[in-house]
Amino acid sequence: MVGKSWGQVSVGYYPFQSIFSVGSNPEKPLWVDFRFETNTFFSNLNSEISPMVNVLNNEWVRYYIGLGLNFNLVSATYQEEVLNGYSLTIGSRVSPLIRNKCFNVIFEISPFVNKSFNGGLLRTNLGLAYILKKNPQ
Q1: For residue 18, how many other CB atoms are within 10 A of its CB?
Q2: Which H or E element spans position 12?
């Protein structure tokens, strides 16, 4: 139903990495996650957009994979490059509560490589998310 899927959005927070995320409905086969770094200088406001594909989906856990672009729009004001690099995200969202499947615990492994492909990081993310729905199940 078009109206139902339009009203679903996911909001998450990764406290150890200080990342806030807003995404489309992660219960759909394809979805998008947009992340903002928090607790940082304004000149270093890195963001990341990652289209995701669910590869295994059941009542309790959802496994997904996606490619992302890491960028800093503030860099354009300093005549610097906007694109920082690329990421590959492999993750899971677990619904640990029987009565509230909208609450998720997130664990991800997300290798990052800079735009020159001469350096990178092996990132791990642990966070919490909530799926806002018109009609929670």
Answers
A1: 12
A2: strand 9-14
In a domain, 6, yes or no: yes
Structural domain total, the chain: 1
Residues 74, 19, 136: CA angle, nearest 5 degrees: 120
pLDDT along the chain (137 residues), means of 10: 56 94 93 90 84 93 97 84 95 91 94 96 96 71
3-state secondary structure 54-106: EEEECCCEEEEEEEEEEECHHHHHHCCCCEEEEEEEEEEEECCCCCCCCEEEE
For the entire predicted model, the pTM comes to 0.86
Q: Which residues pair with 80 in a beta bridge?
A: none
CA 49 – CA 79 distance, rounded (Å): 22
22 vs 35: CA distance, rounded Å = 7
Tokens at 124, concatenated: 């791990």
Residue 81 in any domain: the answer is yes
Strand 47-57, strand 19-23: pairing: unpaired
Q: Is the dihedral of CA 25, 114, 19, 128 positive or negative?
A: positive
What is the CATH classification number for the domain harbouring 17? Answer: 2.40.160
